[in-house]
Amino acid sequence: MCFCSSLFLVLLLAVGHEGLHVQGPSGPLVAQLGDSILLPCFTQVPLPLEGLRVEWRKTDAESLVNIFQHGGSRPELQSQSFSGRAHFFPDEISKGNFSILLRNVERKDAGIYRCKVSLHRESSETEMEIKDIERLVVTGADRAVVASVGEEVILNCSVDSHLPANKIEQVSWRRTDGDIPVLLFQDNETFPESSHERYQGRTEFFITEIPKGNFSLKLRNVKMEDKGEFMCEVHTSDKSGYAIVVLQ
Ligand SMILES: *[C@@H]1O[C@H](CO)[C@@H](O)[C@H](O)[C@H]1NC(C)=O
Ligand SMILES: *[C@@H]1O[C@H](CO)[C@@H](O)[C@H](O)[C@H]1NC(C)=O
Ligand SMILES: *[C@@H]1O[C@H](CO)[C@@H](O)[C@H](O)[C@H]1NC(C)=O
Ligand SMILES: *[C@@H]1O[C@H](CO)[C@@H](O)[C@H](O)[C@H]1NC(C)=O
Predict the structure, then answer these.
(1) How far does the centroid of ligand 1 lie from the alpha carbon of residue 208, in Å?
(2) Model pTM score
(3) Which residues contact 79 (CB under 8 A, 6 or more apart)?
(4) Strand order in the sheet with 203-205
(5) 3-class SS shares of the chain: helix, strand, coil, % to 5
(6) Which of 9, 55, 65, 174 is the most exposed place for a label (fewest CB within 10 A)?
(7) Which domain holds residue 35?
(8) If you measure from the C-alpha of residue 134 to the centroid of ligand 3, how many angstroms do you get, rounded to a whole number?
(9) CATH code at 174?
(10) Does residue 63 sit in the same domain as residue 117?
(11) Does the Cβ of 145 fall within 6 Å of ligand 3?
(12) Given strand 63-69, what is the order of strands in its sheet?
């Protein structure tokens, strides 16, 4: 009892002496669509829970992300858009760690967040930005593509990402049976010579469409043996995705 109250006093003195000073991340945050992201907010010195209030808001709409007061978080006050997705770490709060874990990140989560910590009459806040919500969605054809022998056919593959096309390091079209290379795009260049002999001279990208993320494949002089599944696989430095197109 005695120990506790003296610790409490020491903490108050530490706060009183240095002023309440919360810290956040050193730069903008980058989140992956659908993943979780940690929004850091902490003090060097732990704070007493009594009289402590931590309020997280997203500043554009002043929407309440979460709030800790009277010794607990108050999820019922959260804005609808953060309901069930933004949690404190209950065991960390007494250590001066008021960070929030935001789950299942959505595109509209990008923006500025403010963590405001108040203790009795003092308060301090930090702001941070979720700058990019990264995504890499690869879409193929929405149905099987039908072609006759000798025809020319387009196999769709489009890449939706927040990234400029030059961040797409590699797009490789392959047949899924036997892993046969059909056409390769890498470091902003097409490598027709890397295609399997079955596809040599018959395949190309629409070069002018590539900056729009359209990596569709043009296949000329369709042969019976082309029937089957084609895969369009896309790589950036840290992510990859693919789509399958069926040719009948
Ligand atoms: C706060 O707690 C979370 C969850 O344990 C941890 O990942 C994070 O590093 C902590 N932050 C600080 C500043 O201690
Ligand atoms: C390919 O993409 C174009 C343009 O989005 C669309 O009109 C067409 O229906 C697509 N074809 C298939 C087979 O999905
Ligand atoms: C890609 O570009 C080609 C050529 O303009 C077009 O035919 C095709 O529909 C485009 N595909 C998509 C998915 O936009
Ligand atoms: C990629 O290649 C295209 C066409 O050759 C060119 O216009 C563009 O500047 C190149 N982009 C980069 C980032 O090298």
Answers:
(1) 47
(2) 0.62
(3) 58, 61, 63, 64, 65
(4) 153-155, 217-219, 203-205
(5) 20, 45, 40
(6) 9
(7) 17-134
(8) 24
(9) 2.60.40.10
(10) yes
(11) no
(12) 29-32, 122-134, 111-119, 52-58, 63-69, 72-73
